[in-house]
What does this fold into?
Amino acid sequence: MPRKKRTEPEAMTGSVAESASAAIVSESESTGEYLEVGLGQVIVFMVDRQRYALPIEAVQEIQQIVEYTSVSGTAAALVGMIDLRGTVVPLIDLRLLLAMPAAPYRLDTPLVFAHVGGRLVAYLVDEVDDVVDLTGIPLQAPSRLYTISERLIGVARLNNGLLFVLDSQRLVPEDALASVDDLVQGWER
It folds into this structure.
């Protein structure tokens, strides 16, 4: 008996009038189940040749790397602090945060400024790709085999490959955020 070809929705790019909300209805720990989510638009970026995304409502802005001040004695992923229009913002290398090998920064290295637990942080990424609308595209629950499964909302299968959707609220560990708060308060005095 021949197998039926499974069709899947194609991701749409471009602007959508309504802002999406990231409301997870069902969480699953098994690998084959899909989550029912109303995710909407995400910002897609590359880290070590892998496609990742953050929900668009978590992202404030994107810009090229700026001058930063290194901070010693902190977690490896915390590269330093930057001044964003008078606000001190921690600069986090997403490669190091996700336990990937470090890469040199270039003048065109992008920064993704995102809100994490009421704080603004800047993530260093390799390249920013596009805005993709995941409305109607099922997300597979992250497998526990992924070392970053606790930091993922889910995995989307698109026509051009897998997209790992990160949870902005769980991406940076809470204890690391607390130490960043202490550093930022020290810098702002």
The helical segments are 94-97, 174-188. The CA atoms of residues 15 and 131 lie 8 Å apart. The two ends are 72 Å apart (CA to CA).
